[in-house]
Amino acid sequence: MKIVVPDLETLGRFVRESVLRLPGVARIETHIRLQGVKETTELPLALVHR
Fold it and tell me: What b-and-e string marks burial along 6-42, b requiring 16 or more CB atoms within 10 Å of the CB?
């Protein structure tokens, strides 16, 4: 799962109130990115036409 939240408090609330309440979820592991990463939904179609 990949989510974007404005701060750690919001992340904690999301995990406690949503993720940990899902059936079968006993614990989670979280990785926090400290710098922004370019996100896109664009497909590299130029590579398909080779």
Answer: eeeeeeeeebeeeeeeeeeeeeeeeeeeeeeeeeeee
Q: Residue 34 is which amino acid?
A: L
As a whole number of angstroms, the distance between CA 27 and CA 39 comes to: 27
What pLDDT shows up at residue 48?
61
> Per the confidence metrics, is the pTM higher than 0.90?
no
Q: Over the stretch 10-49, which tens digit does the pLDDT of each residue have? A: 999 999 999 999 999 998 998 887 777 677 777 777 766 5
- Which value, in Å, is the radius of gyration of the alpha carbons in the chain? 16
Residue 20: C-alpha distances to residues 5, 10, 40, 41, 49 (Å): 17, 14, 28, 28, 44
